[in-house]
Design brief:
Mean pLDDT of chain A: 96
Helix content of chain A: 25-40%
CATH superfamily of the largest domain in chain A: Metal-dependent hydrolases
Structural class of chain A: alpha/beta
CATH class of the largest domain in chain A: Alpha Beta
Low-confidence stretches of chain A: none
Largest interface: A-B, 58 and 58 residues
Radius of gyration of chain A: 20 Å
CATH topology of the largest domain in chain A: TIM Barrel
Oligomer: homodimer
CATH architecture of the largest domain in chain A: Alpha-Beta Barrel
Strand content of chain A: 15-25%
Distance between the termini of chain A: 44 Å
Number of domains of chain A: 2
Number of helices of chain A: 15
Strand order of the largest sheet of chain A: 3-2-7-18-19-20
Chain lengths: 407, 407
Amino acid sequence: MKEFTIINCSLVIVSPWEVRKGVKVHVSEGVIDGVGDYESGDILDCEGGVLMPGLVNSHTHTPMSLLRGYKDDLDLHDWLKAMWEKEEKMSKQEMNIGSEISVIEMISSGTTSFVDMYFNPEGVKELSEKYKVRAFAGETFMDSRENPEAVAKRQRSLSPSRYFRPIVNVHSLYTASLDSVRTAYEISKEQDTWVHIHLSETREEVFQIKKRTGKFPIQLLHDSGLIDRIQAVHVGWVTNQELQYLKNATHCPTSNMKLATAGAFPFKEMYTKGTNVTLGTDGAASNNSLDMFREMKTAVLVQRHSYWDLWVKASHVLQASTINGYKLVGVYGGEIKEGMVADMVILDPRKARPLSQERVISNVVYNVTGDAVRKVIVDGNVVYDDEVKERFKTRLDQLYEEGGFNG
Amino acid sequence: MKEFTIINCSLVIVSPWEVRKGVKVHVSEGVIDGVGDYESGDILDCEGGVLMPGLVNSHTHTPMSLLRGYKDDLDLHDWLKAMWEKEEKMSKQEMNIGSEISVIEMISSGTTSFVDMYFNPEGVKELSEKYKVRAFAGETFMDSRENPEAVAKRQRSLSPSRYFRPIVNVHSLYTASLDSVRTAYEISKEQDTWVHIHLSETREEVFQIKKRTGKFPIQLLHDSGLIDRIQAVHVGWVTNQELQYLKNATHCPTSNMKLATAGAFPFKEMYTKGTNVTLGTDGAASNNSLDMFREMKTAVLVQRHSYWDLWVKASHVLQASTINGYKLVGVYGGEIKEGMVADMVILDPRKARPLSQERVISNVVYNVTGDAVRKVIVDGNVVYDDEVKERFKTRLDQLYEEGGFNG
């Protein structure tokens, strides 16, 4: 549909601070070009559903769906060992199977864009075109695993396509040298993109970096002139001093809690100091779900628990998962607003009851899960509905069958 | 069906520590009387689903589904004020509507027994018989709201029925006098039941009780000879000394986190000292979901986050929600084992993938939500399946319509 109007929505969550009733949303050429009375082109009937912006999963490792639940509750050291042993044996084909499972699961639960760190960006690129979902992925610098020159070479050959844009991944400061981060930074300039890195996740990491370099991790990247293109993921152990340097930070509450990394992601401080705070599920091996609705709730919960404070509210995490997510990936979107990309989700209104303008954001964040998603629109294309759901079911059956990572 | 055999389960989670494959479960007169090869009576086809014990929601306030999302993110003081204003105006009929919504939601998400604190136990009793789900509810001592003698009188007239058993609720030590707790205790002896109370939930509560009586709340109940029949709910602010006294304690992780009560429920310490640790969602106004699968995951997350330790595992919270829940309510159940009540849940196996004997408990706790529930069996009756689901849908539409608590 080149041009269509979404009608019969019970409520439209226009932004984290505004819910409208009785409005139609007009889309043309993949862009929202009106919210109000205007109706033109084809009709997309919301059937009483709740319309909201699509969600951005700002940090995941898509191939890891095959490792979901694998030796999950071992102690951290043994779990990592088991994980790496499996991962080392993972073929490119298996990675792509895992990524496809994750892509299907994410779309089905309302994710319209995702940021991925792994070793199969070409596979993810193909999937993004096949499923028409916005993907941001790249090669990953991890010196302990591979020579950085080889990584740089492949990264430089990675090109954007309609739904895909390369990013440059660095696994972490404890698995990659500062030189590798510099290379990643340079490539990110060439490719007009950013550097996506696990940063200040554990006490051990912070301790090691401080011991080795005399500086805290974020301070180190700042002093090295590298911080401005960095998307820092986790940021659970950070000094007040460092906070001011961060332009982009991603909170992965479930994964950090599940792995008992402790610490605290300083959501309020960063938010008020102007960091673009986003939200991610992390991979399916450490979460184990890829459902951004659940992640939004958990983010509020852990913030309130850690800080003994109610400051972080449903609207903040919705903002982190919509507006801020789109800001991170450089796409004008995240609200249902004229000129923004038509990336939207229609929810089953029954799952957000009692349904009212005043309560809906609360019920979406605190009660809804991805299972409430009825339709997903990306770039003006309906990429998920009842019919697609059936196709996804069959495809997932095949993929899990082929995956062969059971045990 | 008086006698039937459940066949074609892909996996059977017999207990938190044992998963079996290729077994049939034979049920007779509401009781499991065999797990193995034996087949007799009618057939219940699992269609490849995962069979597991039913879940016990050990703490909720069923009428509050009508208040879900109502002024949710106000500061605590304003939220409580708004909540109490609404609650004071709630009629018995509205309470029963709220309870019916909660009962339907709980059954649909795999809960087979629940423990309820509110002011409409007769209504809950009726619902338990109508829906064939095990309910444990009673009047609530809350001196600030009602004269304890009137409460005692109504409580004494409350009688058990097939699926209902009276319990005695005391709202808390800060809203009810120690005399009221004594009365509740006496009645609980007469009725052969227990006393269900919010205890040591907030710092403020502990401070007030200590200031008023010179003792910490649990210590006070112990020294007053009242602790042995107590189910203590929340227990977020507790001294080491007090832990040894608790026979039953219920963790409500989501509610405590959402309300920023902070503190820490000492799961590991209580578990290892022999307290029967159970799990509850709390009411829909503070959670806002009644899904015990989500609650199990959140319990592991907050424990690991608070204690910087991986000790609490998926199997512990599954135990808390099954075996320990049944122990609390005094019903021989919680495992799929000969002689235990036939309270079971069949899950969509697609939602627990990758599906394997080794991974299934992990995937059920960390990835599944109540939406994965296909069938629910209580006392050998199928109380939820695809057909019931349709009826529930219609009934929920009516109830939310009648509820009239929107705004």
